[in-house]
Amino acid sequence: MTTALLEFFPAWQQRQLNAIERGQGLRIVYDTARLSPCFTKWRGAEFGDIIAYIRFHPRGEIVQGSLVEAVRNQENPPGQVIAHRAVPLEISVPDDAAQAELWFHNFSQTTTRCDAWDSRFGENYWFDVAGLPQRTPAQPVVYREGAQSRPDVVSVLSIQISKVNAFPKPAVGSPSGSDIQTRMDLAAWVSHTAYGANAWIDFHIFDDNDALIHSETRTLEYAGFGSTSQYAFAGKIYQGSTATPGSVSPQPEARKVQFRLYYEIDYQVFTDGILHQAELATDSLILSGQQ
Fold first, then answer.
1. Which residue, among 88, 102, 93, 85, has the nearest Cα to 33 in the 3D structure?
2. Can you tell me the distance from the alpha carbon of 37 to that of 115, in angstroms, rounded to the nearest whole number?
């Protein structure tokens, strides 16, 4: 895999090495001296983080990750966090991306809140994406008519989509099998909730040629038992091929998942406006244990 490098230096300088290409890697290196006013000491410990946000256009999906790691006092492991140091963030570039938009957020929360931004004075940092032609499924998840795009009302808080072999590990000497499943673990944030509110996802699953092999709508369960209102889903979204001694049930191989998030409250439907997408490994890689 070819990896492009974006380096962000002090004094608001940056450098790009290698072209950013669809389906390849992107490595972001960020000097903490560029944006660090919100790292703060409290009771001998240092608090703070720097998060990179990367929005890929035209779909609008946002990928994020930390650009620092904690440095701990080793005199008494695991030790108190005494500083933070820069670490690279590595992500994969979606196969339908045309541009990458970046910005950065430094923050901390102790007895007070501190926020600082590196966003090129609100214009953000833009980079073209090259490489193989853009791949777009012929039957993407369509935007529901009448839904209002309001990420300030509903948005994805965390998402993990993975393919697993769910067949129980056999005892020594027993025959093995396979049970390929695509699973989703999703948490969605909503600004407020009320009796009768409802959250759901519309999702499509595609094969390696971007042909639609499954579509469905799943309701999210209320999970906001705390300081925030949340809805969540965790479970299987597609059953792939299975094999047991003497029996095989083949199914189309899932290679891509798309979904849209919706939230209905007070007789209005809201969405974050993003067509979320995730790439999946091949079944052979899952069965070989390499993923």
1. 85
2. 8
Structure tokens at 44: 């001998």
CATH of 3-130, one of 3.40.50, 1.10.3470, 2.60.40, 2.30.30: 2.60.40
Residue 73 — very low, low, confident or very high, per pLDDT cuts 50/70/90? confident
Say what the pTM is: 0.85
Q: Which CATH superfamily is domain 148-288 in?
A: Immunoglobulins (2.60.40.10)
Q: Report the C-alpha gap between 266 and 249 in whole angstroms.
A: 45
3-state secondary structure 133-164: CCCCCCCCCCCCCCCEECCCCEEEEEEEEEEE
pLDDT of 154 above 90: yes
**CA-wise closest residue to 96 among 283, 271, 256:** 256
Q: What is the C-alpha separation between 99 and 166, in angstroms, rounded?
A: 37
201-226 pLDDT, tens digit per residue, is 999 999 999 999 999 999 999 998 66
